[in-house]
């Protein structure tokens, strides 16, 4: 993996990990609590694994799944401002596919 790919992986892990912590600490009232806990928890675990080289592939797919779940949950609650989540999902997908090539 090239330096730029590794940098993107670490930046995604830190930024999305911090977002997961913020979500867990603020617990949005307009969303089902159990779903928020599950998605943010999955995202946090995915971020930690994504940052570790030996399990980055698995962590990346967990992180990607959490982002897709978050997009679906937002859209179902008629919150359509998910552009940043789409960018995070695409970047995570790009890094994960590079990990296996």
Care to describe what's here?
This protein has one domain (3-99). α1 packs across α4, α2 (33-51) runs antiparallel to α3 and α3 (56-76) runs antiparallel to α4 (83-99). The longest helix is centred in the first third of the chain and has 24 residues, at 3-26. The protein is built from four helices and no strands. The protein is globular and about 40 Å long. The mean pLDDT is 94. The protein starts with a helix and ends with a helix. Helices cover 80% and strands 0% of the residues. By secondary structure, it is mostly helical. It has helices at residues 3-26, 33-51, 56-76, 83-99.
Can you summarize this structure?
The chain has 101 residues and is an all-alpha fold. The protein is built from 4 helices and no strands. The model has no long low-confidence stretch (mean pLDDT 94).
Low-confidence stretches: none
Number of strands: 0
* Helix and strand run: HHHH
Domain unit count: 1
What is the assembly state of the chains in this entry?
A: single chain
User: What is the average of the pLDDT values?
Assistant: 94
Computed over alpha carbons, the radius of gyration is: 13 Å
The description of the largest β-sheet is: none
Share of residues in helices: over 70%
| Spatial shape | globular
**Total DSSP helices:** 4
Helix vs. strand class:
mainly alpha
**First CA to last CA: what distance?**
9 Å
Fraction in beta strands: under 5%
């Amino acid at each position: 993996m090239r330096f730029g790919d590794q940098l993107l992986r670490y930046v995604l892990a830190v930024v999305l990990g911090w977002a997961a912590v913020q979500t867990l600490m603020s617990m949005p009232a307009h969303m089902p609590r159990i779903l928020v806990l599950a998605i943010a928890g999955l995202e946090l675990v995915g971020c930690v694994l994504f940052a570790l080289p030996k399990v980055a592939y698995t962590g990346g797919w967990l992180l990607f799944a959490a982002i897709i779940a978050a997009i679906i949950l937002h859209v179902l609650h008629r919150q359509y401002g998910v552009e940043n989540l789409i960018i995070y999902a695409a970047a995570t997908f790009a890094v994960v596919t590079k990990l296996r090539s």
